[in-house]
Amino acid sequence: MISNEQYVRLSLEANLFFLRIVKEHAIFAAASLPAKYAPTSAQFVSMKNSLERLLSRTLALSHGNISSEVMNSSELVTNLTLPAEKEVQALTGIPVNTAITVQETNLGYRDFYRQGGNIVQQVSALNREIIRQVTSAINFQSNLLRQILTCKAFSFVYPTNLDHVTREARAYVGLLNSLENKQAEDISVKGIIEQEIFWNEIMDEHAKFIRGYLDPSETKLFKTADNFADRLDALEAATVALRNNPTNLTTVTNESRELVTDLRNFKRQGTEGLVACKIKAIMPALLADHVTREANHYLRLLSTFKA
Ligand SMILES: [Fe+2]
Ligand SMILES: [Fe+2]
Question: Which of 147, 177, 200, 300 has CB 3.0 to 4.6 Å from 152, enough for a Cys bridge?
Fold first, then answer.
């Protein structure tokens, strides 16, 4: 069982990170559909609007309630999130509530837990509403993916990317469900291994998405992304092998930290290049910033595993 203090902090930290992630998935999905699917695209935009309202609600409860580790991890926003949002809004016509990002940049972190008010009830109501909305987003995306895989619909997003975003959203719903049951995160060896398998696979797919969204003339960046994909394939295999031989966990955790730090730096440079219009790709800068934040989130988790 976790304490009320942990419940509030862990819930708000998860919501600040994942709500932004899930709402950006909706932006990318909306932007990638051909004109014929305008109604589907509009549904993604309205889903994004609802998720932004939930993010605002989270933010209103978060002042003074989240840890300095999360605040300083660059998993919630980076210094490139705002310019990347402005760019995606201007180039795709999909509205983005950038005021949330400005507020979030100025969010203070927790000095002490304020027991006052009915914060536990407010967080619980928020979590249950998020579980409902994110589950419906998952169903909507899974349904679109099924149609794409049977050639009944078309999108410029890779099918694997649609599957990838639903796995991230499912992990979020799973986390909120365990928090609602006041369960502590599974930090047993087995629990850590499953987390590393999940996130190393996510990182591996990021390298492959970046490789695939680069213009063919970007040969140097293509080779770098391809090299990351090869190294992450090997790391992922080593992580899966931990299920049978957990004694290598420390080695694999250290390798993960090193490789993911390099990948995160590559993603951040890519975001800078895209924001400055110096890289040719079919990928908005916001997607590059998005995968950078996901790497920062995973790097923070890895540091807690070490502790
Ligand atoms: Fe994502
Ligand atoms: Fe991702």
Answer: 147
Say how far apart CA 211 and CA 265 lie, in whole Å.
Answer: 15
Question: From the CA of 195, how far away is ligand 2's center (Å)?
Answer: 14
Between the CA of 49 and the centroid of ligand 1 the distance, in Å, is 17
- What's the total number of domains in the chain? 2
For residue 28, the ligand closest to its alpha carbon is 1
Mean pLDDT calculated for residue range 160-189: 95
Q: How far is the CA of 203 from the centre of ligand 1 (A)?
A: 10
100: nearest Cα among 119, 76, 123:
76
Which one-letter DSSP state was computed for residue 182?
T
pTM, entire model: 0.96
Q: Does residue 115 register a pLDDT over 70?
A: no
What is the three-class DSSP state of 180? helix
Helix (H) or strand (E) holding 161: helix 159-180
Cα dihedral 162, 12, 71, 69, rounded to 10, equals -100
Of the residues 148, 182, 216, the one at which a domain ends: 182
The reply to whether 204 and 73 lie within a common domain is no
Q: What is the CA radius of gyration of the chain?
A: 19
Boundary residue ending a domain (127, 153, 182):
182
Domain containing residue 162: CATH number: 1.20.1260.120
**Angstrom distances, CA of residue 13 to CA of 102, 247, 275:** 17, 31, 27
